[in-house]
């Protein structure tokens, strides 16, 4: 009996197109930000925001995570950061959040082995609450951020954020 591979090849080609157009393979719950280059965490952050994926976002933060505001007060820990981001993701569940990282940041080694600092970071967030055809989106831009990133070797090399520092006057809003 002869097997006709043309049908299989068409199906395989269709599957590849679906995978490419969908943005890649579906990530299992609890997926990590895999890799050992510190800048990879920026792609993972953008993806978590774009997909409004709080479970993936949780995996990007170290358990000892903290967010420091230069204006004093209102510093956040892991739980407060997750609550704030989860509320934001829920508020935009019918719309979208797009995170853009601008070039020009620096990466320096931290004081501990496997720790890095991403400095002079500029992040632009576009918030579209209604999706296409709805209310005009607004933007938040944060300039001069410093992000502490830790390389974890097990179970696979992956990155987590252990600290974020926001200098005074870093955030601006616009429509």
Automatic annotation (TrEMBL):
This is Uncharacterized protein.
